[in-house]
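Key result, reporting period 2: structure in, sequence out.
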């Protein structure tokens, strides 16, 4: 498919009797920032290793940038960039020295290496450190240098495998902003993470993996709407008349309503606009004072828990 950056059909990887990736089907469009979400051991990294030709699939098919990962492995490798979890460059070398080495491995012209390296280092906020040995860099600086290294040869697709793991909050934010900026420039990005908040903020579409399978796929908004359990409204009231629960259920259109720790919790799968004003007007008519009204929107964490709670 012309618009596909990555396409998988029944892609499977087994290690002996253990199935790490279990017959997944996937279509990532060109220019997407696509996330793989799931806990450690879900199969994300194994999937990425197959797509980047580091592992050979046991069965099934996969194409990356239009090339078969088995038959055209060398061409696939020239079309992709990879940012691994761990810093894989030379600590004793400066950013420019690391990039010269990588550029020569790809057979790039010297002038092209210099121009491309300086441009990317500026974009990553590392130009002023271009001649400083990487061993003194913070974790965030090393990850940004890894991104630059992965982009040096102008790949079509960039794979980022849990790149913010272990970084401080400021470094995480900086790397996220760099990732979004690269995607805006048209680079397809495959981003694996077990951080659900990060995936929600960053990714346009997400595949949730667990036990080697893709158990859900869609935009963060669609996933939360379908699997998040709906809007949750928590009411702390001064009194609870006998008919209150049934009245609130009728007014709000609640799918579920219960008392929990002194609060009334209302869950609405498909909440309509104006439901909170309806509830507050009803309470005012009944002369029931609300000490607190909280609205909690579904998160990707709730999506994941709801999808996997029976799968442990």
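The corresponding designed sequence is given below.
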């Amino acid at each position: 498919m012309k618009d596909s950056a990555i396409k998988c059909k029944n892609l499977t990887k087994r290690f002996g009797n253990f199935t790490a990736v279990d017959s997944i089907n996937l279509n990532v469009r060109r220019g997407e920032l696509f996330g793989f979400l799931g806990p450690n051991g879900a199969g994300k990294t194994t999937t990425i290793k197959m797509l980047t030709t580091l592992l050979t699939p046991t069965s099934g098919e996969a194409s990356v940038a239009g090339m078969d990962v088995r038959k055209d492995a060398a061409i696939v490798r020239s079309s992709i960039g990879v940012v691994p979890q761990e810093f894989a460059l030379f600590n004793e070398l400066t950013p420019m020295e690391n990039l010269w080495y990588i550029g020569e491995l790809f057979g790039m012209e010297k002038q092209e290496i210099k121009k491309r390296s300086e441009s990317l280092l500026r974009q990553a906020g590392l130009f002023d450190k271009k001649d400083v040995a990487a061993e003194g860099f913070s974790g965030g600086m090393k990850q940004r240098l890894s991104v630059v290294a992965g982009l040096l040869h102008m790949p079509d697709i960039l794979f980022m495998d849990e790149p913010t793991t272990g970084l401080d909050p400021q470094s995480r934010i900086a790397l996220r902003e760099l990732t979004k900026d690269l995607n805006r420039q048209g680079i397809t990005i495959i981003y694996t993470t077990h951080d659900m908040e990060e995936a929600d903020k960053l990714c346009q579409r997400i595949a949730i993996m667990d036990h080697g399978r893709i158990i859900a796929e869609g935009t963060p908004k669609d996933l939360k709407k379908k699997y998040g359990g709906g809007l949750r409204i928590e009411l702390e009231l001064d009194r609870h008349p006998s008919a209150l629960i049934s009245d609130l259920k009728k007014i709000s259109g609640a799918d579920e309503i219960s008392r929990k720790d002194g609060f009334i919790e209302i869950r609405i799968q498909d909440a309509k606009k104006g439901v909170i004003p309806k509830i507050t007007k009803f309470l005012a008519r009944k002369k029931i004072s609300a000490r607190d009204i909280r609205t909690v929107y579904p998160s990707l964490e709730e999506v994941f828990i709801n999808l996997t709670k029976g799968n442990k």
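The chain has a mean pLDDT of 91. The chain has two domains: 4-225, 231-296. This case is discussed further under Risks and Mitigation.
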